[in-house]
From TrEMBL, chain A:
One of its GO terms (cellular component) is endomembrane system. GO terms for molecular function: NADH dehydrogenase (ubiquinone) activity; NADH dehydrogenase activity; ubiquinone binding. PANTHER family: NADH-UBIQUINONE OXIDOREDUCTASE CHAIN 4. Keywords: Membrane, Oxidoreductase, Transmembrane, Transmembrane helix. The chain crosses the membrane at residues 31-51, 85-106, 118-137, 144-162, 189-215, 236-254, 299-321, 328-347, 359-377, 397-420, 432-454, 474-493. Belongs to the complex I subunit 4 family. It comes from Streptomyces mesophilus. Residues 141-445 form the NADH:quinone oxidoreductase/Mrp antiporter transmembrane domain. This is NADH-quinone oxidoreductase subunit M. The keyword Membrane applies.
Automatic annotation (TrEMBL), chain B:
NDH-1 shuttles electrons from NADH, via FMN and iron-sulfur (Fe-S) centers, to quinones in the respiratory chain. The immediate electron acceptor for the enzyme in this species is believed to be a menaquinone. Couples the redox reaction to proton translocation (for every two electrons transferred, four hydrogen ions are translocated across the cytoplasmic membrane), and thus conserves the redox energy in a proton gradient. The keyword Membrane applies. Pfam families: Proton_antipo_M (PF00361). It catalyses: a quinone + NADH + 5 H(+)(in) = a quinol + NAD(+) + 4 H(+)(out). Residues 179-485 form the NADH:quinone oxidoreductase/Mrp antiporter transmembrane domain. This is NADH-quinone oxidoreductase subunit N. It is an enzyme of class 7 (translocase). The chain crosses the membrane at residues 30-50, 57-81, 101-120, 155-176, 182-203, 215-239, 270-295, 307-328, 340-359, 366-387, 393-414, 435-454, 474-499, 511-533. The lineage of its organism: Bacteria, Bacillati, Actinomycetota, Actinomycetes, Kitasatosporales. It is found in: Cell membrane; Endomembrane system; Membrane. InterPro entries: NADH-Q_OxRdtase_suN/2, ND/Mrp_TM. Its EC number is 7.1.1.-.
């Protein structure tokens, strides 16, 4: 038996969660350092996974595989394995968590003292690590049931993170804030739970049809022509899966939980939602919808593309109209998820490589923008754009990093998101020119909301309340600096990620029996 | 017939009576039931002869020993292959000893044992006149608020009769799923129902509510027993026998010798259909399925909370066991008739339980409606009519009973001046004040909601899978929709506990004795083990999924 590297990558943060939760109430700082330590070990393990992963042309599709019997009665195995897409997203998750932990260093310090039983700090960091463990394992699972379990179970720690540790910078009273926060948490949970339960029906249906949950076995059956799925059955099962992933991703019109959740959660938790957890949705579309139900995916493509297009334009339009910084970022994310889903369902290699790269880049760029926004909001105590103005004169470093984050969000060439957005658009245009053209307007709107946000908050006359705003501290710089370096690096040299992703995308495309359309010039 | 025996056309010579054959009873095979009933009878003698001071300890000891011994007997029988290859009909055809019977008996005994722990809890209520008291009335016979009640409280009386009553109820429940003829079924039903009616009336606090609950339960229960009995009479008229196998033979049309006295009614389909429907009604009442669920919220709310937990867990197990045997052994030939009806019942039960629970403001009523919804989920597995259906129901019942007892045990801990604080508004902010208790309750709620990595999910998955494979895909869809609705109110309680600010006059969490702690601990452990590694128990349920005929 080989060394269970993948299990370890998920087990380390899980153990970290338990260890952090067990730290006594008075030793708050120790809990934080412990959580950071475990997240860094996880990052190191993720790097090892990346190194051990073979991107050569003859390499297996799923590598570093592990397989153990788990619940034989349900046909469930504990099966892990990663393809390039999985490695990229594990890397993203493991990379972002330490930044999230450092950015949220003081977010969960208890306000009331004396209650020794209530240990919010320990809980906060333990829950973050718990989410990390489940997300990483869900990227590794090659058993549909195992994936489903993680997909659902990660909602619970997320739910407590949103509802239990809200943003203190709230316009209204404390009571009002608590009510809105718990509303956002419940909305998040119910949307995702309903999606998950509908997927459960489809998971059971898949088992009735295929008799197994293992991706590799299903692929073998399909190759041997043994998997008989009636057209209607396949479409229904596809819809069951897709619905859950579309809620999680989120895709218009199932997106409405995201602005609430991101608005009410603390900035690091908002990053956790949109940059890490939501990626499971788009990842699962690529791995499960396309691979398990290729014909139905093809059948659904036009509708999905139109929904993605609506997400792109609608999300961007609403972002333009937001008065709340965090909700603005949330709507911008909805627009970006539209791009990702469009890239996946364009069924071209550029589109899907671009979509995967987009997931990574969107994670980094949103983390950069949102975390700086969080630092800004914690200084002023307000999320409203109108409460800011002229910050760049008072806190130039903060304003500068905020600008880079905004520029990344609007996909400025030279920063990472540009490459992926370009790939997605090219990939879409090759097959669906009209949709590709309309989607381009998303970029224009992206420039509008990003620059208007910067202009209204950072430029202009210095507002009285902002006048004494301190600039970024060392801890905050340590969070933002590396993220910006990464944005620039991947913007100039995206090859490490694309090399990782390309073989997996080729596999996926061959699953759905799609080939890149021939360029028209070459056809002559 | 020899010629010498004929004296005339209408008389024959009687064989001289040498002996009457004594009934053949396989005592060792029905040992679990005998142990429990024997201990119950001993318990009554204890009430009569042991001094009041020592009664509590003797009763608790006796009950625990009896239940453990009975469980050991079940395990021994199962280990001896009586659940699989050696299963058979015993006690002159009255009882079946087979896989489902042993599995359910084991479940009932274990959940009964855990329930006895919560019955014996004496640290939660404040001491009355220097005496530690449990959840039960000082003297059940005294009128609430009367002089005699006060005198009983002053004297430190406690209702230790509750332990033999519980043992009788458990004894009846052990027989119920293994009953192999309709009369045994009816007797078992009465043996476990009558003590339950009584136990419902025994609450120490809110006694009028408790007595009201008992009367409601008794009246509706008696009504349903009457239906069951009438159904038995009709089925006897139809088949000429009350034995399960005999009726099944008549349903299948394979019966050879027709009793001439019954030839007129035998095989009359009207009798069969009406009789079967009436019997099903009686059983669905005990299960708490819609439209026979009306008693559940009132009784669950009024009964002393430990009794509610016991009822919700063990009664459900026993009643579903009997329902399974009836549908799978007696009426499989009729399944094209009962399946559509049960479809309707299951859908109505799942949806109504989940929807009405949303509007509840009392935690016990909420759990009552949740138990109705869960009865619907289990019915989905029953309808599958496959071996997988049986094993999934067995597994679900085992998983569900421990979650239920654990959840009601937590309810007993949250108290204010008026006893248990069951109104939901009082649970606000519990997570801040007692994170551990709130976290444990959250685990139970998540299991009820069927979140993965809890036993609730494994159980739900098993029954839905069985239902889907049995061709009831639509039922699965309704099931997941009502799960989603149900999730809403479970989550609401979690929101209340963790995300609401605690109220200054809110309830306190009593520190229980190791007894209740054990009950809750077992609940949590079973919930997590069955959620993460259910394979062993699924295997067990699989092996136990063949009924003997």
């Amino acid at each position: 038996m080989s060394f269970p590297l993948l299990t370890l990558t998920a087990a380390v943060p899980a153990l970290g969660a338990i260890a952090t939760a067990a730290v006594p109430a008075a030793k708050r700082t120790a809990a934080k350092w412990l959580a950071l330590f475990f997240s860094l070990v996880t990052l190191a393990l993720a790097v090892v996974v990346g190194i051990r992963f073979n991107t050569g042309s003859g390499a297996d599709r799923y590598q570093l595989t592990e397989s153990h019997s788990w619940i034989a009665d349900f046909g469930v195995r504990y099966e892990l394995g990663v393809d390039g897409i999985g490695v990229a997203l594990i890397g993203l998750t493991a990379l972002l968590i330490p930044f999230i932990i450092v950015a949220g260093w003081h977010d969960a310090d208890p306000q009331e003292t004396g209650n020794t039983r209530w240990r919010p700090t320990q809980g906060f960091f333990a829950l973050i690590l718990m989410v990390e463990a489940m997300v990483i394992l869900s990227f590794e699972a090659t058993d549909v049931f195992l994936f489903y379990i993680l997909f659902e179970a990660m909602l619970i720690p997320m739910y407590f993170l949103i509802g239990g540790f809200g943003d203190r910078a709230h316009a209204g009273s404390d009571e009002n804030a608590a009510a809105q926060r718990s509303y956002a948490a419940v909305k998040f949970l119910l949307y995702n739970l309903v999606g998950g339960l509908i997927m459960l029906a489809a998971v059971i249906g898949l088992y009735v049809v295929a008799g197994t949950f293992s991706l590799s076995e299903i692929a073998e059956m399909r190759a041997a022509g043994e998997l008989e799925m009636a057209t209607n059955t396949e479409r229904l099962l596809f819809l069951g899966f897709f619905f859950a992933f579309a809620v999680k991703a989120p895709l218009w019109p199932l997106h409405t939980w995201l602005p609430n959740a991101m608005g009410e959660a603390t900035a690091p938790v908002a990053v956790l939602i949109t940059a890490v957890v939501d990626k499971v949705g788009t990842f699962a579309m690529l791995r499960y919808c396309l691979q398990l139900f290729p014909n139905a995916s093809e059948w659904a493509t036009p509708v999905v593309l139109v929904l993605a297009l609506i997400s792109i334009v609608y999300g961007a339009l609403l972002a333009v109209g937001q008065r709340d910084i965090k909700r603005l970022v949330a709507y911008a994310s909805i627009s970006h998820f539209g791009f990702i889903i469009m890239g996946i369902f364009a069924m071209t290699s550029q589109g899907q490589s671009g979509a995967t790269l987009y997931m990574v880049n969107h994670g980094i760029s949103t983390a950069a923008l949102m975390l700086v926004a969080g630092f800004l909001i914690s200084r002023r105590g307000s999320r409203l754009i109108a409460d800011y103005g002229g910050v760049q004169k008072v806190a130039p470093v903060l304003a500068g990093t905020f600008l880079i984050g905004s520029l990344a969000t609007l996909s400025l060439p030279g920063l990472a998101p540009f490459v992926s957005e370009f790939l997605v658009l090219v990939g879409t245009f090759a097959r669906y020119p009209v949709i590709g053209i309309i989607a381009t307007f998303g970029i224009v709107l992206g420039a509008l909301y990003s620059l208007v946000l910067y202009q209204r908050t950072m430029t202009g006359p210095v507002k009285l309340e902002v006048a004494k705003m301190p600039d970024l501290k060392l801890r905050e710089l340590l969070v933002v600096g590396p993220l910006i370096v990464l944005l620039v690096f991947l913007g100039v040299y995206p090859k490490p990620v694309t090399e990782l992703v390309d073989p997996a995308v080729k596999h996926t495309l061959s699953d759905v029996k799609q080939h890149d359309p021939e360029p028209e010039v070459a056809a002559k | 017939m020899s010629a010498t025996a004929v004296h005339s056309l209408w008389t024959t010579a009687a064989e001289p009576i040498t002996k009457i054959d004594s009934p053949q009873i396989e005592y060792s095979l029905i040992a679990p039931t005998l142990i429990v009933i024997g201990a119950a009878i001993l318990g009554i003698l204890v009430e009569a002869f042991v001094p009041r001071v020592a009664r509590y300890y003797v009763q608790v000891f006796l009950s625990v020993v009896a239940l453990v011994a009975a469980f050991a007997a079940v395990v021994a029988l199962a280990a001896g292959g009586h659940g699989t290859t050696e299963s058979g009909i015993v006690a002159m055809g009255a009882l079946a000893v087979d896989g489902p019977a042993l599995f359910l008996q084991g479940t009932i005994l274990l959940s009964g044992l855990v329930a006895i722990f919560t019955f014996a809890e004496r640290r939660l209520d404040p001491e009355a006149h220097g005496n530690r008291v449990d959840s039960f009335a000082a003297q059940a016979a005294s009128v609430p608020g009367s002089e005699s009640e006060q005198a009983a409280v002053r004297a430190g009386f406690t209702t230790t009769e509750v332990f033999p009553l519980a043992l009788f109820a458990i004894g009846g429940m052990l027989v119920f799923p293994s009953a192999n003829d309709l009369l045994t079924l009816f007797i078992a039903l009465e043996v476990f129902s009558l003590p339950l009616y009584l136990m419902c009336a025994l609450a120490r606090r809110k006694r009028l509510m408790s007595q009201e609950a008992a009367v409601k339960y008794f009246l509706l229960g008696a009504f349903s027993s009457a239906f069951l009995l009438f159904g038995i009479a009709l089925l006897y008229g139809y088949a000429g026998t009350v034995s399960y196998a005999g009726i099944a033979d008549v349903v299948d049309g394979t019966v050879q010798n027709v009793n001439p006295a019954l030839a007129g009614t035998m095989g009359n389909d009207a009798l069969l259909l009406v009789g079967a429907a009436l019997i099903l009604m009686g059983l669905l009442f005990k299960v708490g399925a819609v439209p026979f669920h009306m008693w559940t919220p009132d009784v669950y709310q009024g009964a002393p909370t430990p009794v509610t937990g016991f009822m919700a867990a063990a009664t459900k197990v026993a009643a579903f066991g009997a329902l399974l045997r009836l549908l799978y052994v007696v009426l499989p030939g009729l399944r094209w008739d009962w399946r559509p009806v049960m479809w309707g019942v299951a859908i109505a039960t799942m949806l109504l339980g989940a929807i009405v629970a949303i509007t509840q403001t009392d935690i016990k009523r909420l759990l009552a409606y949740s138990s109705i919804a869960h009865a619907g989920f289990i019915l989905a597995g029953v309808i599958a009519t496959t071996p997988d259906g049986i094993s999934s129901v067995l597994f679900y019942l085992g998983a569900y009973s421990f979650v239920t007892i654990g959840a009601f045990a937590v309810v007993t801990l949250v108290r204010d001046a008026g006893g248990e604080a069951t109104h939901l508004s009082k649970w606000a902010g519990l997570g801040r004040r007692s994170p551990l208790v709130a976290a444990v309750f959250a685990v139970f709620l998540l299991a009820f909601a069927g979140i993965p990595l809890t036993s609730g999910f494994a159980g739900k998955f098993a029954v839905f899978k069985a239902a889907a494979e049995g061709g009831a895909g639509a039922l699965v869809v309704v099931g997941v929709i009502s799960s989603a609705i149900a999730a809403f109110f479970y989550i609401r309680v979690i929101v209340l506990m963790f995300f609401s600010e605690p109220k200054p006059e809110g309830p306190t969490v009593a520190v229980p004795s190791p007894l209740t702690m054990t009950a809750i601990g077992v609940g949590v452990a079973v919930t997590l083990v069955l959620g993460v590694a259910p394979q062993y128990f699924l295997d067990l349920a699989n092996q136990a999924s063949v009924f003997v005929r």
